[in-house]
Structure formats: structure tokens, C-alpha cells
Automatic annotation (TrEMBL), chain A:
CDD domains: TM_PBP2. This is NitT/TauT family transport system permease protein. Pfam families: BPD_transp_1 (PF00528). The lineage of its organism: Bacteria, Bacillati, Bacillota, Bacilli, Bacillales. GO terms for cellular component: plasma membrane. The keyword Cytoplasm does not apply. It comes from Salipaludibacillus aurantiacus. It comes from the Bacteria. The chain crosses the membrane at residues 28-48, 60-79, 85-106, 127-150, 181-201.
Automatic annotation (TrEMBL), chain B:
Keywords: ATP-binding, Nucleotide-binding, Translocase, Transport. SMART domains: AAA (SM00382). This is NitT/TauT family transport system ATP-binding protein. CDD domains: ABC_NrtD_SsuB_transporters.
Amino acid sequence: MGAVEQLYIGLFDTGILLVALTESLQRIVIGFSLAVIIGGILGILLGVSKIADETLGSLVIALQSVPSIVWLPIALIVFQGGAGAIYFVVILGGTWAMTLNIRMGIKNVQPILIRAARTMGYNHTELIWRVMLPASIPSALTGARLAWAFGWRALMAAELIGRGGLGRTLMDARDFFNMDLVVAIMIIISIIGLIVEYFFFSKIERKVLSRWGLAKAS
Amino acid sequence: MERVVIEEVEKTFPNKEKDGSFTVFKDISLTVNPGEFVSLLGPSGCGKSTLLNIVAGLDQSSAGEVKVGDKKIKGPGSDRGVVFQEAALMPWLNVLENVTFALRKKMKKEEAKKHAEKYLKLVHLSKFMHSYPHELSGGMKQRVSIARALSMDPAVLLMDEPFGALDEQTRMMLHREVQFIWQETQKTILFVTHNIRESILLSDRIVLMGTRPGGIRKIFTVDLPRPRKPSSPEFIKLEEEIMSILAGEIEKVMKEEMGDDFNSKKASLLYGTDRNMGNHI
């Protein structure tokens, strides 16, 4: 019950949780968006160009296997302890999942669709935009979902060490032995996960999968 | 409507392991007259689909050239509409958008839409214009694919075993539909099939192809009035004539695939499995 009380106080009375929550959300939204954009562009490049895939492809796989929080010490030095370090870690956390999924999506486009489009006079660049990209939307969605999950975990870990946001507040609460507040913050973190899953990804996924004919529309 | 001229076309695949190479067919020459319906018939592996793909521009020939009208073929283009065995519809577009997809290179959105609607009506799919491909049956998808190819108003329609993956009833219905479309649009059609009956039913001429060495075995002119009845004596006579040549070709293919295992008498085993039953009582 103490946690619920702390939730109420933190959100509506002193407002420390509200401030921390806003800061964390701002970081994840910006970080996630950039991860999707950068990862998307890189993924398209790897999917379309064989040379890029053979040179950068294994590098991406190597980078992907490094948990992004490992970058924090270097990032803190490079960004001189600024907020940039946390953004860097969040973006890095999400980018590779996005890249690899888009790449897979483009590689797995049914060749018959490309052949059919070629008989209609589409050239190589048009094929990428009109056939390969739309056909890889379902995998891009999986990529975005993973990018969110990795980014969110990276953010929490980075905030525990860095500053600001829910993670830092969690550490502060521990320093004051306020375990009720610690639990309250954990509740907030899991609720955000639930909201994003049910009100964002699930909805988009259901729409995309039914339209692409990959699942029966319920 | 254009004439298709295939001149001494050869297709050879280089073999990397051995020094030799594999020639699918060579010296194929064939002229398809404007408005004519020609079938390419042959056993699997004779290269009939490869020949069609060369005409479509999706495959390169190793030698010789193909002309549509006066134009030499260098790559795929919208003057040749292709219908594949699979419908190859874009799953994220609805039926109408799938047809306009073929037209957006040529015309404005509104014009393309009107054009597409006209051709969807021709294949009797007006009711399903806003459905997505996964909501359609196999036959309906194939009809969309035909409408898409026709809507570009190609000089030639190339069909690569378009009904091979469909069930018998749907295929019969689509045969009727293709004849109707052919009479309506007067297109030149090159049609690949392995079904003798289908080729007799639909075409003006049947080009029978064989393997080892790949090439044209014989060209039959089908001189029967339409609509053709598979039960008529002339139909059956032609069917048997084609079958007698094709059977030899099929046997060659089987021998090639199975090596020494193949024995054309094997089929008779089916009737002789009881040879040990009760023999020694």
C-alpha cells in the first residue's frame, strides 16, 4: 500500500515522479524515433546493396551482440556527461534490431513480385520504393518492436548510472531507503510497457498483418 | 496487336563444376502472327517457360533475337503483359490498386482508376474491387492478374502456365473466360502449358517442344471450330496424335531424372503384385 501512496504523492503532490516520467518518456520517444530512422536507412542499404551487405553486414551483427549499455562509459566521456550520452545509448540499443529486421524483410521479398513489377516497366529504384519497401513493412514492424524493447531497457540502465529520469529517481529512492518509492517506480515502468504494447504495437500490428494477409483479421 | 518473331534463339547455362555447359534449347525459330493464340506444349525441362521468359525480357537468350513488332527485345517492358503461374499480386494493395499499379507509370491516378475498372469488369470482378488478395480464391487472383496484364494494353499477352495451380472446375471456367477475353480484345497470346487438352481447347497453333536436344518437335494447326468440345472425334484424334509424340519425350525426361532406375515397364508392376499369393500352397 505504501507504493500506491508514494505513486500518488510523486505524481500529484510533489511531482517528482511526474518530472522524472516526462524526462524518461521524452528520451525514449526521441531515441526510439532516431533508432527507427537510422536503423531503417541502414537496413534498406544492406538489403538493397550487395556490396554494403558484405562489408557492413558482419559489422552490424558484431555491434548488435554488444549490449548498448556497455557504450555508456565511452559515451559519458565523449559527451562530457551530458544528456547526449543517454540518447546515444538508447539509439544504439534500438538501431541494430531495426537494421537487421528491415534487411531481412527486403531480402525475403518474393522474387515473383519483383519479376511481375519488372514486366510493368518498373526500374530498379522504383522497385525498391514501390515493391521491396512495402513488402517489408511487416518485418519493419517487428524491428520497431524490438528497437523499442531494447531502447527502453538501455534507457533504464543508462539512467541508473547517468542522471535524470525514472532510473535516477529509482537510485535516489534507494539511497534514502524509500523502498515504497522504488516499487512505485517499478510499477510505472511496467505500466508504460503495457500501454505501449497494447495501445501502440498491438494495434498497428493487427492492422498491418490483416492487410498483408498474414493473419486473419479478428 | 503485334507479330512476335523468335529467331534462332538459344539458351545455354554455363556449368561451373564441369567445364561443359548445359544447352536447354537452340535454334528455335517461331513466328506468332498478330491476333494469334499459340501454345507452347512440352514436358517439364524442355525450356518452354524459359522461352516465354526470354520473350518477356526477364531472361537473356544466349544467342538469337526476339522481336515484337519491329522492336528487338532487350529487357522487360509494358508492351508485353505477363501472367505467371502464381498471381503475383502485391498483398498490401487491394484489387483495384493492384491493377492501377501496372498503369501508374503511364497515366494519372484518376485515368488509371477508370481504366482499371474497365478491365476488372472484363474479368467479372467489379464486386471485389476493394478486397485484398488474401480474401480472394486462387481463380479470382489469377483473373486479377490477367486484368492487370491486359490493362497495360500490351501488344502481346504472355501466359506462363496460368492455370496450372488451380483446381479442375476453376480451370474450366477460366478457359472459357480466356477465350472470351481473347475474342474481345483480339490480343496476340503466347501460352505455356503442359496440358494437352488445354492447348487444343484454346489455341490456333500448338508448338510441341522436346528435350535432349531441346527444340521444337512439331507444330500442329488446330482447325476446329470454337467453342471446341473435348469429346468430339477430331479433338480426341489430335489429342492422341500429340500424346504419342509427347510420351516419347516424357520417357526421355524420366530416364534423365531416374537414371538406371527407370523402367517403362514399372507401371505394370501395379497389376502384378499378387504374384506370390497362394502360389506355393
